[in-house]
Design brief:
Blueprint lengths: L1 H7 L3 H28 L2 H22 L2 H8 L6 H28 L1 H7 L5 H8 L2 H17 L3 H26 L4 H22 L2 H7 L7 H31 L2 H37 L3 H28 L1 H6 L3 H4 L2 H16 L3 H7 L3 H26 L1 H27 L6 H23 L4 H24 L2 H10 L9
Length: 496
């Protein structure tokens, strides 16, 4: 147990950079969205969020699994010529795929405009589409730096500079009273250009590498990226397909409300993604060395901690859903129930830990494609049916159902393939502790009668204190308590 806990503390610099970057990006983008929601009319805000969803979906195709291929291939290469040749091939492949995506979107814009209820689709697309190659190359530079263990160079342009630049632009637009969507979209594109420029300057040897190598692609170069692209594309389709259905059946206003609820719950979801980024090498190492017992123990520990952190954030969202939606304006405040449904889905996501990532890392990509396809089909079909019956709430139920289905299937297949699962006595103690904290928080909310902002601050402080007291008392074992004291620099009590 102690050795496994010590593994959680390894590579602390990379861990701090990754987590701080993710938190910084999530908080600044959330704040920026709140500002933009108060600048634009609700329908135009919906148009803006529709295009950010379209970009997020399109970029999966544009980057064609390059980030995964880069992380998997670059660290293994020792020969300089082969290293440069690989970089050149990845660059060319990314250039081709991003160009194809941009071309398809531009050619189809008149047709798509006729079937969607999204104002100014054709005009806005002409501007926003150029973020796709920018994001694709930012992702390439990030994965390149990660493969060289340059975590600062990898995270800073995309997760610090880009969201901060967009935030500054949004504040200026708000203070200047510029309520046109064009100003917002242009600021959105420029923020990515700034991040691209900085990322390029860090890896400016790219141009000399390209000039010194003959760019030639083979069929195998495409095959290496295809499976990872399919998994990512199916996962992103779960987020984008309800947006598309809403744009077809309802209006841009509903799209904006839906995207706000999604964006708010991203904070809970990104924790699992961050843990996967940091601890994946350890999980992969244990599996490849056939240390199955340690592999199982490490899975149990990481799942327990994602549950603790995920339940903490989900609880804050559940108890403050109306306030969090109201940050974006009075038109959003009544839709707190959307956040509550998504918070429950993200809680289940956190409760299953890195089960999906385990399947990917252990050569089960084809299985993950099938599971992700099943999730995507459920989400699309449920969205089409439920949106016509229940409107916006139907779309949220469809998304939540897809998330719950995928996570349940992933953990079942981990159990079936490896014959272990993360559920033990201490796991259920975490669930009991979280339930106790929620009951106390809910009861306090029902008893006291104070305005939204003071209660939000009060509830965050209350939940934090309760977690700090109840979790160590009920859910943590002696080794974990010792580990936390070591991490936070707390001295052990003297035995004398």
């Amino acid at each position: 147990m102690k050795s496994l806990l010590n593994r959680l503390g390894t590579n602390s610099k990379g861990t701090i950079i990754v987590f701080s970057g993710k938190i910084f990006n999530a908080l600044f983008m959330y704040t920026t969205l709140a500002i933009i929601a108060r600048v634009l009319p609700v329908s135009l805000f919906g148009t803006f969020t529709f295009f950010t969803s379209l970009v997020a979906f399109s970029i999966i195709v544009a980057k064609f699994g390059i980030e995964t291929v880069t992380l998997a291939s670059i660290p293994k290469i020792k020969d300089k010529v082969k290293y440069q040749n690989t970089i050149s091939k990845l660059f060319l492949l990314l250039l081709i795929t991003s160009s194809i995506v941009v071309t398809v979107l531009l050619i189809s814009r008149s047709y798509i405009d006729k079937i969607l209820n999204i104002p100014m689709y054709k005009e806005v697309l002409l501007i926003v589409v150029w973020t796709i190659p920018l994001i694709a190359f930012i992702t390439f530079f990030r994965s390149w730096n990660q493969s060289l263990l340059k975590f600062g160079n990898a995270i800073i342009p995309e997760n610090f500079i880009r969201p901060f630049a967009f935030f500054i632009f949004a504040v200026f637009i708000y203070l200047a009273g510029l309520d046109s969507i064009y100003y917002v979209i242009i600021a959105y594109v420029i923020s990515y250009f700034i991040a691209f420029f900085i990322a390029f300057c860090v890896r400016r040897e790219l141009m000399s590498i390209i000039r010194s190598n003959k760019l030639k692609l083979t069929v195998s170069d495409f095959n290496n990226s295809l499976q990872f692209t399919l998994v990512q594309l199916l996962n992103q389709s779960v987020k984008f397909s309800p947006v598309l259905v809403l744009g077809f059946y309802l209006t841009a206003t509903e799209v904006g409300i839906f995207r706000i609820s999604q964006q708010t719950t991203i904070l809970a979801a990104f924790l699992l993604t961050s843990i996967n980024m940091v601890f994946a090498p350890t999980i992969s190492l244990l599996y490849n060395e056939d240390r199955i017992q340690e592999f199982s123990d490490f899975y149990i520990i990481t799942t327990k901690w994602t549950l603790i952190i995920g339940s903490y954030i989900s609880m804050i969202i559940l108890l403050n859903s109306d306030f969090l939606m109201g940050v974006f304006g009075k038109n959003f405040q009544e839709w707190g129930v959307l956040l509550q449904i998504l918070a429950i889905a993200q809680f289940i996501n956190a409760s299953t830990g890195s089960s999906g990532h385990i399947l990917l890392m252990t050569g089960r990509q084809k299985l993950m494609i099938k599971l992700s396809l099943l999730q995507a089909l459920l989400t699309v079909i449920a969205s089409i049916i439920l949106v016509q019956i229940y409107g916006l709430i139907g779309a949220i139920i469809a998304v939540a159902s897809g998330v719950i289905l995928l996570n349940c299937l992933q953990i079942l297949f981990v159990w079936r393939i490896f014959s272990f699962h993360p559920y033990n006595n201490y796991y259920f103690r975490v669930l009991i502790s979280a339930f106790v904290v929620y009951i106390i928080g809910f009861s306090v909310k029902e008893v006291i009668n104070i305005s939204f902002l003071p209660y939000f601050v009060f509830s965050v402080v209350l939940i934090t204190i309760l977690y700090s007291v109840i979790m160590p008392l009920i859910a943590l074992n002696g080794d974990e308590k010792h580990f936390l004291k070591k991490v936070f620099g707390m001295k052990e009590p003297s035995k004398n």
